[in-house]
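User: Sequence in, structure out. Go.
Assistant: Echoing your sequence, followed by the structure tokens.
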Amino acid sequence: MSEPILIARDGAIVTVTLNNPEKLNALSKAMWSRLGETMRALDADDAVRCIVLRGAGGKAFAAGADISAFHAERANAAQAKTYSEQGIGWMHAVAECRHPTLALIQGACVGGGLLIASQCDLRICNEAARFGVPVKNLGLTESYDELEGMMRVIGPAASLEILLEGRIWGAREAYEKGLVNRVVADDRIEEEAYATSRRIAEGAPLVARWHKKFIRRLQDPRPLTPAERDEGYACFDTEDYREGVAAFLAKRKPQFSGR
């Protein structure tokens, strides 16, 4: 059996590939588990500056869950709850990764695939991309935890639309609803996604991690604590700040160390 998740490095950029192309990268339990392990390991790696998530084969990001395994893994409510609680941890490993994440979406991004993509910081798709969560046709619901990421990206009205109708959205409609940041011609999707990842990786990595943290925190209605407000100025004590200012004044490219 092939590896469910492939990992490739190009300097500070890491590509994580969902690898089940014969089934359009339909998500098995092994894929979910390995994805969670991979993202937690990358989260702890200070050398990483951007993670690109994609599907193998170029025809799909992920065409939902592997429904052929449902009878063995989610045959009743108790079994489904156990499976989902494990899967939520794996999915949250994407959302909680401190490094910037980018979903490179080609073709089908449906069900669980859309849930994974919605955990990423940015989503860039090709013209052929298709999006949907047609679980109404299977007689099942998405759990609260599964819905959280999608609703954070497209809001409650569009989330209800995609769930109640169960239809598949094209790339342009997905862009109009805010599900993707950018739509690119099919033959330019990899070029654009990796150009984006390089722009991210060239920036100060501590700043990227702080901005991820700050944006997520501001979605929490609780008032900021004094310590949290102070953290907004911690960058001024870093080597990267001193390097960035010096490089700007010298009209040269900064060399950030992540310190």
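User: And one key feature?
Assistant: The radius of gyration is 19 Å.
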